[in-house]
Amino acid sequence: MTDVTFVKDKHIQYVIEQDSHRSFEYWLSEHLRMNGLYWGITTLATINSLDALPKAEVIDFILSCWDDKSGGFGSFPKHDSHILSTLSALQVLRIYDNELTMISSEKRTKLVKFIKELQLPDGSFQGDRFGEVDTRFVYTAISALSLLDELTKEIADPAVDFIMKCRNFDGSFGMVPGAESHAAQVFVCVGTLAITDNLHLINQDIKLASWLSERQVLPSGGFNGRPEKLPDVCYSWWVLSSLAILNKKHWVDLEKLEGFILSAQDLKEGGISDRPDNATDIYHTCFGITGLSLIDWKKYNFKEIDPIYCMPVEVTKNFKKWKNLSS
Ligand SMILES: [Zn+2]
């Protein structure tokens, strides 16, 4: 099945050139630039090639996206803060500098305030002050506070109540209470429960792991995000990370999944697409490669990826997770 090789050097080149293409699509994607940077840096960190991008320039770009008015990071200089770009900024900074020394205590205080003020009375989080609510933002906020070592029960408990309200009869999770089950929402909900030490709320029930393992589509071996949909490389991450957190990776055929991810590589130009023969992008490149890390990081000489935070374990092992209230 897995006779296609992993073209590491092409992928490195692909990530480096993201920034130099200066294509029309590139400039259209300003609102995703910080997320794109996280996907690129995570790709390089996972394949042990973080040095391929200039650290000082990356950090300068991130710091230039600080929005002092609201106290978070935007996706691009002069853009308003959003919780998604704030998490991406913190993830990249912490990959480079575990102590987050480039964030002053004044900025840190503002960041915590920005994130906490996005929480609504029902425990959910908005992405920004414009009010869209999604379980994605709950995970993003909880993960960001955890990265800052600023997570407290007072924030976590209502957030977990909200997550459990988004659970469906099939054991899976949706975007908001009553919304259709979707694999990416499963990751954010299971991730939130894992960060806040609440996996016991779902662990006794095998319905969720069954639903996740049914996402594997044969004969390709790739995962889909919902029943009846085509397989897509990014679900290699959303589904397999959730199964990894639940200790059920062995419920799927990992070799077939590996073959599917490898077959979606562009062997000439580097990069990975959503499915074989489609155009590559940095998002699917990142989640294909982090998926391969979950499958067998040693075989590829990758870094081991943390299924909860989607960051290298060597970084996340230092997280204190909860705020030390006595200090
Ligand atoms: Zn996808």
Automatic annotation (TrEMBL):
Residues 7-311 form the Prenyltransferase alpha-alpha toroid domain. Its EC number is 2.5.1.60. Its cofactor is Zn(2+). The keyword Transferase applies. Binds 1 zinc ion per subunit. Signal peptide: none annotated. It catalyses: geranylgeranyl diphosphate + L-cysteinyl-[protein] = S-geranylgeranyl-L-cysteinyl-[protein] + diphosphate. GO terms for cellular component: Rab-protein geranylgeranyltransferase complex. Gene3D superfamilies: 1.50.10.20. Keywords: Metal-binding, Prenyltransferase, Repeat, Transferase, Zinc. One of its GO terms (molecular function) is Rab geranylgeranyltransferase activity. It comes from the Eukaryota. The keyword Signal does not apply. Belongs to the protein prenyltransferase subunit beta family. PANTHER family: GERANYLGERANYL TRANSFERASE TYPE BETA SUBUNIT, GERANYLGERANYL TRANSFERASE TYPE-2 SUBUNIT BETA. Catalyzes the transfer of a geranylgeranyl moiety from geranylgeranyl diphosphate to both cysteines of proteins with the C-terminal sequence -XXCC, -XCXC and -CCXX. This is Geranylgeranyl transferase type-2 subunit beta. It comes from Spathaspora passalidarum (strain NRRL Y-27907 / 11-Y1).
